[in-house]
Amino acid sequence: MEVMARMEKTKKYARFAVVGTLAGLVLFLVGIMGVLIYAKVQGPPPLAVPQSTLIYGEDGSVIGETNTGEKRYWVGLKEISPALIEATISIEDKSFYQHYGFDLKRMAGAALADVKAMSKVQGASTISQQYARNLFLSHDKTWKRKISEALYTIRIEMNYSKKDILEGYLNTIYYGHGAYGVQAASQYYFGKDANQLTVSEAAMLAGIPKAPSYYSPVTHPENAKKRQELILQSMTGDGFITKEQEAVSKAAPIRITGEHAHQKAETAPYFQDVVKSILRSDLGIEERTIEMGGLKVYTTLNPDHQQVAEKVVKEQIPDESDIQLGFVSMNPKNGYVTALVGGRDYEESPFNRAVQAIRQPGSTIKPLLYYSALKQGFTPATTMKSEMTSFTFDDGKKYTPHNYNNKYADGDITLAQAIALSDNVYAVKTHLFIGQDTLTKTAKDKFGLTTKVKKYPSSALGTSGARVIDMVNAYSIFANGGYKVKPVFITKVEDWSGKVIYESESKKEQVLDPDLTYVMTHMLTGIFDPKLNDYSTVTGIQIRKDATRPYAGKSGTTNTDNWMIGYSPQLTVGVWTGYDKGKEVSLVDDKYYAKKIWVHFMEEALKDEPVKNFKPTKGVVGVAVNPHNGLLATEDCPVQRFTYFVKGTEPTEYCHEHLGEKEAPKEKAPEKGKKPWYEKVRDWIF
User: Fold this and answer.
1) From which domain of life does this come (predicted)?
2) If DSSP codes are grouped into helix, strand and coil, which group holds residue 543?
């Protein structure tokens, strides 16, 4: 009976054991299913990590980056040396492509080794586990962290391909010295991109993450070398390289640089400030994303132009001077800002005078006024008296504009001369004649000024404030033949994964009459032409000897501001100089800084560019005129200037002043098919 009882009891325990085992297995399977369902419901975790945003110039060079204390640059697997990928898999996770996030065999082996040594001596984390830890978790050793790591690992494996996981791991792993990811590490240790690494370099780099400070080839070259040789041996065992390659790689010399690639990228700080402001305000990108989102921002900056601009400013303005400046160069065809200087010392004053300061533009506003006048029937030959004039208005107020040094022609001058000599009386008369609201509307609607030109008589002389960037943009519209442009700083923005999130678009819209625009441009070449001298010399005479190619432009002067804006067919440049607090510019030399900076920049920036003339439009005609009265010149006129007019508006009357006893030519149309003499002169000159 006792035997039977014991047998029954044994069977009972066996049943309990079987039931318990089955129950445990069911619970385990249910748990596994629960974890998998949880991972599926949670969906794919984001793979983005904090990384440096890079800002590129138009030539592809890095001109700046955000500094978060960590160097991170995301690159795709195709941009990583295959040797580095193989070395990493060989030493970190041989069965990476076979497991589903956890290497059970390796885990068991590590556990056994730890038990034998009675301490933690061997790791068993897969690449997927390490990636999960790097992305989302702290590196503390609690059970909570281990469970979270396992869940993240499952989510990564369920939702991403092995390629995505490997790419993410290689871009987030820490390689020491502030370098996160293979690109930053390759540049720091070897001074090259990750796709250029040799087998020898790749093996050394793959060995660093195990203990970055201990295996750093910068601080511990011997440790790094031993680790490299171990990895090369492992790669041979795994079939990635041959015995011969192993031997060659072990013996190959390695040059260590130990310097981050972009740590000294301080090009154009004022320009970079504008770029970041556009990212925030215009594109709506959050500050955190700009600083740590790993963006790639492609800009319009021409590093050569920027270097020339900064050099010329330093050469022309003495160190002891307190004069400040704003400088902008722009491609008139598309509005691309190629260089920008917002002040003489960014560290001392980050205030950007090129885009933030609103200063009186002086006579540089006149071309906008005179374009409006051309629209209302003025021509380069239109004459008005240049003399001291007081204007009395309906409310009884008087306004008396003055020319520079109170010099006047005390007689008629042409519009072409008024521009070249910067005659203020002519400008105010024109402003009042065409209506004071005309300049206000034209400046805003046609030329895109963001500051309002007030409806005052003095606005014709540039007393309403404007920004350098706006004025340069306005002149670019003249330079490109009358097409609307706006300042462009950013051409494209990519996120950390390479996805394009912004790309600039340009639409060609004609906003100015092309014929009148060319007439205006040709008149603006007059500031360099002594043929237009009269009661004073043309305003560009001081820099004429330095100009070796055709330019059009206009200078501007107030008591507190000095400007020079001008262009060639390829480039528009504007310079403002003055004191920040609006102090009067009294020294003669100080008044010429803007012009000198402008011409020296243009000459050096364009020295490798072909010399181009401003091309006449089909609707204009050029005739030789006496520049003092705007009449057709005769052979007896001591000064003749070839001048362009819109067809049908050119003068028909010949100059009588220098004929002497000779009879003036009769005014008649030239015979059909026979060119008049002034067209022959034009053809001979051009």
Assistant:
1) Bacteria
2) helix
- Provide the pLDDT for residue 625: 96
Q: Give domain status of residue 606, yes or no.
A: no
Cα dihedral value 327, 332, 337, 342, nearest 10: 10
Residue 27 has a pLDDT of 62
Q: What is the pLDDT of residue 647?
A: 97
For residue 26, give the amino acid letter: V
Does the annotation count 476 as an active-site position? no
For the chain, the helix, strand and coil percentages under 3-state DSSP, each to the nearest 5: 45, 15, 45
Using alpha carbons, select from 489, 460, 484, 463 the residue that is nearest to residue 473.
484
Catalytic pick from 81, 363, 464, 555? Answer: 363
Measured distance CA(130)–CA(414) in Å, rounded: 79
State residue 233's pLDDT score: 95
Q: What is the 3-state secondary structure (H, E, C) of 94-116?
A: CCCCCCCCCCHHHHHHHHHHHHH
In a domain, 182, yes or no: yes
Residue 683 has pLDDT above 50, yes or no: no
Per-residue pLDDT, 507? 85
Mean pLDDT of the chain: 85
Amino acid at 519: V
> From CA 228, how far away is CA 234, in angstroms rounded?
10
Say how far apart CA 463 and CA 559 lie, in whole Å: 11
Instruction: Specify whether 555 is catalytic.
Output: no
Beta-carbon contacts of residue 676 (< 8 Å; ≥ 6 apart):
670
CATH number reported for the structural domain that contains residue 136 in this entry: 1.10.3810.10
Is pLDDT at 367 greater than 70 in this prediction?
Answer: yes
pLDDT bin (cut points 50, 70, 90) of residue 23 is low
- What tens digit of pLDDT does each residue of 152-179 get? 767 777 777 888 888 888 988 889 888 8
> Per the residue annotation, which of 65, 86, 92, 149 is the catalytic one?
92
Closest CA to 194 of 203, 184, 204: 184
Tens digits of residue pLDDT in 262-303: 655 478 999 999 999 999 899 998 877 887 778 999 999 999
Kindly indicate the confidence band of residue 121, based on its pLDDT and cuts at 50, 70 and 90. very low
User: Which of 203, 231, 251 is where one domain is finished?
Assistant: 251
Distance CA 499, CA 426 (A): 56
Residue ending a domain, among 191, 225, 251, is 251
Give the model's pLDDT for residue 51.
76
Q: Which domain holds residue 95?
A: 81-251
CA-to-CA separations, 617 to 165, 481, 646, in angstroms, rounded? 60, 9, 9
Count of domains in the chain? 2
Residue 334 forms part of a structural domain: no
Q: Is residue 599 domain-resident?
A: no
**Concatenated DSSP letters of 572-624:** EEEEEEE-TT------TGGGGHHHHHHHHHHHHHTTTSPP-PPPPPTTEEEEE
Beta strands in 291-353 (DSSP E): 296-299, 324-330, 337-341
